[in-house]
Write a structure and sequence with these properties.
six-stranded mixed β-sheet; single chain
């Protein structure tokens, strides 16, 4: 119940009248609902107002707290506490379906003797008058016709909130299973469990989900159509998502949805499709015009900011794709990194410091392409350790350009995967004889040309080390063999 001050013409107010002078606020709130629903044709429940069995079931029901608006009177039905008991007539020989309805009404409240001052003569008179209005919610159950299978129609000026299916001869209790509360939530939707006037009342459990246009409560299809008209595309509140979201495109699968994924990020996801694409287009114009499309990640507030831009521009002075790092005011250039993170450990792959020096923390495979004009400092080469030679040994250029082997047998050596014709490739081979005192023989490919035709094919001493370099410029058709030393100990 809401209590407001009630004043008469020329009445002299008392101080306690000011404590209840909120009638204007109530009227203003009702006026706001009138503006929202000015062309609605249905009653609306914003939340609650559900009929339910009593804590100790009986032939009475309760109604939960809630807020509704009657379309015909544009009066709020506000219940701030459990309302009940509300009597239900005992069942008779056949199933009976009743209608539960509520309304808000005003009645005079407190009385008091008040002074009245005549505005012309100034004379004071006294009269007993009502000093307050009581704004109450009232509920009633209208009994249906037994055996008809249909509930009675609602009373004008009341809001229908439920139907009750009263079993034959029921005279002890009304249970929740008998009560069918309103479930329709937009124009065109019905409360399926009701037997009549299935769309006379709508309920929106969350007022933030109220979608009105022209006073009409829109359902998903109508809302999508409206947004398509207004925005040139389908847009709807997606209710399939766990966290709620905004859907783009038709409200059917496959569907593109944006929703909150946690406390600090949004997700754009394409459901029932193989891919999700976020496409940022430049302002309209053909490829000859100066346009740019950019995703800019910005820290700070103007005028002190730091930017990382991913861009595609077409300016006359600069037509390119790129990553651009910017600063303004007191912003600074900091390291730009590409890293990997598994949730526990972060590892840099590429780091470019503010001074533009670069660190690469992984292998770089140029796939046989040219590396031009490098200045090399403090470098090393991969050493491919082949282990024991056995009787046959294959030297693969792709294993590295410096390789080592222990000669444990008389051994036939061959080469594989040299660079293609027109490119030079070289291998340095470090051969160490085992600690056996017997000589070991090496049989080299006949494609090797040695200086003056002298072929170094024997290592005699235990642990003797020899170093050979082989160069080819014709894809391995010919190798030039160079003896770097034949008797290191």
């Amino acid at each position: 119940m809401i209590k407001t001050t009630k004043l008469q013409a020329n009445e002299i107010m008392k101080s306690n009248d000011l404590e209840l002078i909120n009638e204007r606020e109530v009227k203003n709130l009702e006026a706001a609902f009138r503006m929202i629903s000015r062309s609605m044709s249905k009653d609306l429940i914003f939340f609650g107002l559900k009929a339910q069995q009593r804590s100790t079931p009986s032939m009475n029901i309760d109604i939960t707290l809630g807020l509704g608006v009657c379309n015909s009177t544009i009066r709020m039905a506000y219940n701030k506490e459990l309302l009940g008991p509300i009597a239900v007539t005992n069942g008779v020989s056949s199933l009976r379906i009743d209608t539960v309805e509520i309304r808000l009404y005003e009645v005079p409240g407190d009385q008091d003797t008040r002074a009245f001052k005549d505005p012309i003569t100034g004379a004071i008179s006294y009269s007993s008058v009502y000093t307050t209005n009581e704004i109450k919610i009232e509920a009633q159950v209208i009994a249906g016709t037994p055996g008809s299978g249909v509930a009675p129609t609602k009373t004008s000026g009341w809001i229908k909130i439920a139907e009750i299916q009263v079993p034959a001869y029921q005279s002890t209790n009304i249970l929740n299973s008998y009560i069918k509360n309103c479930t329709a939530n937009y124009d065109g939707c019905e409360t399926a469990d009701w037997t009549t006037e299935k769309d006379i009342t709508y309920i929106k459990e969350d007022i933030s989900d109220l979608r009105l246009y022209g006073g009409k409560i829109l359902g998903p299809t109508e809302f999508s159509g409206l947004m398509k008209t207004l925005a040139g595309m389908d847009l709807y509140t997606d209710l399939k998502m766990k966290n709620g979201g905004i859907g783009f495109g038709p409200e059917v699968d496959p569907r593109l949805v944006m929703y909150r994924g946690g406390t600090d990020f949004l997700i754009l996801r394409n459901y029932n499709q193989q891919y999700s694409i976020l496409s940022i287009w430049s302002p309209p114009g053909d490829l000859t015009q100066e346009r740019e499309a950019t995703i800019s990640l910005v820290r700070g507030n103007e005028p002190n900011q730091e930017f990382v831009d991913f861009y595609n521009n077409g300016y006359n002075s600069e037509r390119q794709f790129g990553i651009r790092i910017q600063k303004r005011g007191t912003g600074s250039f900091r390291a730009f990194v590409i890293d990997q993170f598994d949730g526990t450990t972060k590892s840099n792959i590429l780091k470019i410091d503010a001074d533009r020096s670069m660190e690469l923390s992984s292998s770089l495979n140029l796939l046989d392409n040219v590396l031009s004009r490098p200045m090399i400092k403090d470098y090393s080469e991969t050493l491919a350790v082949k282990g024991n030679s056995g009787a046959d040994l294959t030297i693969n250029f792709e294993d590295g350009n410096v390789q080592s082997v222990v000669l444990t047998n008389n051994c036939t050596i061959s080469f594989t995967n040299p660079p293609a014709t027109g490119r030079a490739g070289s291998i340095t081979l470090i051969v160490k004889k085992d600690d056996n005192g017997l000589p070991r023989q090496i049989w080299w490919p006949v494609t090797i040309k040695w200086e003056e035709g002298l072929i170094p094919n024997t290592l005699d001493e235990a642990n003797q080390i020899a170093i050979y370099t082989f160069i080819t410029i014709d894809g391995g058709t010919t190798y030039y063999g160079i003896i770097g030393g034949n008797s290191f100990e």
